[in-house]
Amino acid sequence: MPQPDTNTATSRAGSGKGTVLQVLPRLVMGGVERGTIDVAAALVAYGWNAIVASEGGPMARELDRIGATHVTLPLASKNPFVIRNNIDRLAKLIMERDIDIVHARSRAPAWSARYAAQHTGRHFMTTFHNAYGHGTLLKRRYNAVMATGERVIAISQFVANHVASTYGVGPDRLRLIPRGVDVARFDPDSVSPERLVRLMRAWRLPDGAHTVLLPGRLTRWKGQLVFIEALARLKRPDVHAVILGSGSAGYRRELERAVAASGGGAIFRFIDDCPDMAAAYMLADIVVSASTEPEGFGRIIIEAQSMGRPVIATAHGGAQETITPGDTGWLVPPGDAAALAAALAQALDQDAAARLAMGRREIAHVRTHFTSSLMAARTLTVYRELLPQAAKATVAA
To answer: Which residues in the chain land under pLDDT 50?
Structure first.
C-alpha cells in the first residue's frame, strides 16, 4: 500500500494546476457520465489535470478529445473482494499521477476511492445523484459512504434535503449544484432540416404526425406502462408515440403486450437508441417523463426545455425544481394515467402562439439556471475550497 504524502498536494497546489480524479462505474450514456465529462472539460480549460477512472465505455473517447485522461479499472463491480483490491489500484494511481482530489460519483467505487484517498493523504469528495433507498440497515450503511466526503455535492434540492436529513450532512460540507445541459448542442437553431428528415425516416414518422416522446431506460419505474395507458385514454389516432430506450427484453415484451391490449388510438414505436437526441427532441411535439419513483434531477426535462419542447413530468423529485406548471411545462401525479392523459390533451391543443411563448420561456429558463458550463464552474469552486492555494494561483494566472 502506498504511504501518505501530505506535502505533495500543498506544493503542487501552489502551481495552480491541481489534479482531480473522478471515479464512476462506466462511461456509458447517462447523466452521471455526462456530468463527469463536462467537469473534466472545465478542469482542462482552467489548466488543471483531469483524470477519470471507470470500466470504460463509448464515452471514454470524449475524454481523449478534450485532453483528459481515462484509466480503465474494474470499478463497476460490487464484489467485496474487487472493491478491496480497487483500493490498492486507486492508491497506486493517486501516487503515480500526483492526484490532489478524489471525486466519487457512485457508491461501489466510492468505497474504494475513500480508503485510497485516506491511505494516500488526499482530499475525498462525493456527488449524490439521487435519494438512494435505505430500507435496511445494510443498505443504509452501503449508501453512507457517499456522505463521508469533505464536500458532498447534491444535484437538486430534493437530493440535498435527503442527504441532510438521512445522513446529517450539514451546510459546512453540503453543496447544491444542479445538473446542466450543453446549450450549444441542445439548441433549436443548431438542428438542420436534414437531421430531422433522417430521423423521421429512421423512426417511420409521417409528415404532420403529432409525436409524443418518452425517453429513458426500459425499466418499470420510468413509467412506460403509465404512458401507454394514458395514450389509450387519450384516444388520438393521429398521435405517434415513441418510447426511446433499451433495457430488459422481458419488460419490452410486456410493454408491447400493453400496447396491443390498449385498444388502438396512438401508434407506438419502440426505439432502442438515438445518437442524435437534439434532433429527437425537435421531432417531438411533447416530451414526457413519467417516472413513478422520484428522479434525483431529471436530465431529459432540461434537455427538452433547452430545445423549446413542451414537457410533462411527474410531480416529485427534481422535476419540481425544473418545471413551473403552466409556465415551463406540466406536472402530474406519479402513476396517474388519467392526469397524464389530460395534460397530453392540453399540450396537444396548444395553439402556435402559446406553444412558441412557452418554448421561449423554457429556453431562457435553462440558459439562466441549468447549463453545463454553470454546473462545471460551480464544481470547480468546490475543488478550490479543498485546494485554496491552487485557487489563488489560478486566479493570479
So the answer is: 2-15, 391-397
Q: Are residues 30 and 155 in the same domain?
A: yes
Q: Are residues 73 and 131 in the same domain?
A: yes
Is residue 287 within 8 A of residue 186, CB to CB? The reply is: no
CB 156 within 8 A of CB 140: no
Q: Count of domains in the chain?
A: 2
CA pair distance 9, 22, nearest whole angstrom: 16
For residue 189, what is the DSSP state? G
Q: Is residue 1 part of a domain?
A: no
Which tens digits make up the pLDDT trace of 14-61? 445 799 999 999 998 778 998 999 999 999 999 999 999 999 998 899
Tell me the residue type at 370.
F
- Whether 380 and 347 map to the same domain: the answer is no
Contact between residue 175 and residue 382 where contact means Cβ atoms under 8 Å apart: yes
Same domain, 364 and 377: no
User: Any idea how long the chain is?
Assistant: 397
Angstrom distance (rounded) from CA 387 to CA 48: 12
pLDDT in tens, 172-181: 999 999 999 9
